[in-house]
Give the backbone structure.
Amino acid sequence: MRFLVVPLFILFSSGCAITTTTNQPAEPLAMPLKPMLKSQTYQLEYEAQHTSPKVKSVQLPAHKVMKNQTVKIVTDRVSVTDTLLAQISQALNDKQLKVTTKNDSDYTLAIHQVDLSFTDDSKYTLNQPKQPYALYSKVAQQFPTQQCATILAQVSMRLTHKASGDVVWFAKSSLDSTSFHRESLIYSFTEEQKITNELEVVAFVHQQNTEQARLARAEANTKVAIPKYNTMSKLSTLTKVQGPCTRTEISALAPMMQFYLSSILIDKIKVI
């Protein structure tokens, strides 16, 4: 009886060891390394048609405007900023005319019009680069043009001989904001690679790392192929990086436009 117990104990112990060995779960799967994602930034340049300032200037020969004669600026018909008034005074001084606030001046320069008004938007057309990149045709079809706010500025003046009341010179100028700043519009966009199946890969690895799945892999003695990451290219929206376009940006040009047109007119006065 004693000899029978020993073999049974050995057989039972061996059976436990075999059972324990076959029930060991497979090693957990590691998350695969993500691929290096590429990113590239491109630019699009847009140009608009420009026109020269429209200027009409007429000087009558009844009285000759001479150097060092005095001029009083009259602004009772329009609203003129102190900055613009100082700029017009400087332009007259550059013509060697003396600006005065006294009523006994040789001439009066009446500013009749300093108008600003929004007009139809300006159309900017896409410029093709010298070396078009692969995405250019695709993007050009989506964004062939851009529309920008536009201001029309108008200024008119009249120079009158104080003693006689004769009009010596009158002039008018106008220009739109697009032709004033003449700056091209530049937009940028980015092409980025994105992983499209990251959640699927994570879910697969998580499912395969459960106790039940690891035991099943160990029992079948098979290796599992983790799905590969799939990527696709995605384009960002356009972002403006150069050039005024919105109403706020265009409105900021108004003071410079008024000075520019005023200086053009005053430069037309013939001073001897």
In short: The chain has eight helices and ten strands. Helices lie at 2-22, 82-94, 136-142, 177-181, 198-208, 211-220, 247-251, 254-267.
